Fold each of these.
Amino acid sequence: MREVTERDFRMPEFRDADPADYEFRGDGKIVRKDRWETGIHQIRAALGDRVRPEFEIDEVVEAVRTIVDRMPDAPGGHI
């Protein structure tokens, strides 16, 4: 059986993380600094735009607006 190390006490999501990539959110939770950028890339991929190497955030927002506007129970107003 192996010996317990300090690493074994860390939460799995932070086990091999670089502290420089993280910050404290307003509520005290530790979060990735690039979470907003990562989220936009995930939304873009979900929209099916995985081919182009570059894009503008406004294009992603407009694509989401188009989808929301086509929903039968679309909320009034835009994002």
Note: The two ends are 55 Å apart (CA to CA).
Amino acid sequence: MNVSMNLRTPFFLLFLVVVAFGCSDKKSEKIQEEDPYLKQLTEKQIGDSNYYISIPKKYTIKENRGPDFSVYYFYSADTTAKATFSGGLYFGNHPSQFEVSSDSCKTAKIKSKILNKNADWTSYNCKGKFSIQTIVKSGSGEGWNEYIHAFAGAASTADLKKVLTIFKTIKKKKQKVN
């Protein structure tokens, strides 16, 4: 009886290890990684482009068109409410980074995703006013909007994190054929 117990023990331990590691699937990992703030957002089309972004339900998107570019701003639709953040997206072929307003601004680099790609963001803290920006290739193939310059301003680091979550939601959908 002692010999059979000795043979069963390694198999039982192997079974426990397989069960323990086999139960961690991609879905549970994705749920753990998902930001709870995403539930407060609603997907909206960016102008008449094939791009979509999820923003707070009470936010709106406004477009400013130039001769060969478009800039889309998202901000609180209630202009009487104090917005803690706002942002924008430049679609065009000649983006440029914004300059900081003061030499006393602290600059940091942040890694985050946009269009499902890793991006290097520049973050500024100018006396408690925060901003971020990055420039990425759009992958549009449309000729006039080779780049996207994403930018935002926020009242706190917590709001900056919300804006980064919003920018992670940008995606391009295929145009519907009628």
Note: The beta strands are 41-45, 51-56, 59-65, 70-76, 85-92, 106-114, 117-126, 129-137, 147-154, 171-172.
